[in-house]
Amino acid sequence: MRDSYQKRLEELHTELIRMGAFCEEAIASAIKGLLDEDPDTRKKAIALEKEIDMKEHEIEAFCMRLLLREQPVAGDLRQIMVAQRIIADMERIGDQAQDIAELSAFLVGKRMKSESHIPEMSAAAAKMLTDSVDSFVESDLTKARDVIKYDDVVDGFFIKIKNELTELIAADKVNGEECLDLMMIAKYLERIGDHATNIAEWVVYSITGERGALD
């Protein structure tokens, strides 16, 4: 029975990695659509959000089957519960990638998007997502805690972008509406970082029984 459970747990990990890959691709497509002004790439990010939703439902059903058939206890039960929390955060990440893709359509022809720190911020947020999912699959407490700390990097980019855009508006050097749209995109990326942090905190809980413990 234990071998059967371990096999199903490995299947769960595979599905989580696949859902994480969809999220990473959605973020990348949304930012590429923004910078390259490519409507097809933006549409891809929006379509991926639906794939992410479907994957969430599939994993939810898989977790329920595990609970009913295997009746796990203690640490095993925590693993399944945490997996359900993780997919909820990844679903929200898909929503935010879609929001970025939809908002980027209003920034076609605008110069500031390529002059801001949006690309670097997006890469940092995507790294957090990848590492947080990997930390769960690998039961890597150190990696999970590193993700939690790395959120400061994403927050730092948000503050930098906000300050730069505020200065440009004050100096009347750029359209205010353009700045607000870019600020919203930066905010969505900050939220993606927050969701990755949530995932990492759930990983800490799954390993230690203490949610968000950093020490």
Which features does this protein show?
single chain, 215 residues, mainly alpha, Methane Monooxygenase Hydroxylase, Chain G, domain 1, 86% helix
Query: What is the chain-wise order of helices and strands?
Result: HHHHHHH
According to CATH, the homologous superfamily is: Phosphate transport system protein phou homolog 2, domain 2
Number of helices: 7
Computed CA radius of gyration, to the nearest angstrom: 19 Å
Structure description:
The protein is mainly alpha-helical and 215 residues long. The protein has 7 helices and no strands.
Task: State the gist of this model.
By secondary structure, this protein is mainly alpha-helical. It is built from seven helices and no strands.
Fold topology:
Layout: H1 2-36, H2 39-70, H3 74-104, H4 112-115, H5 118-137, H6 141-170, H7 176-208
Helix pairs in contact: 1-2, 1-3, 1-5, 2-3, 3-7, 5-6, 5-7, 6-7
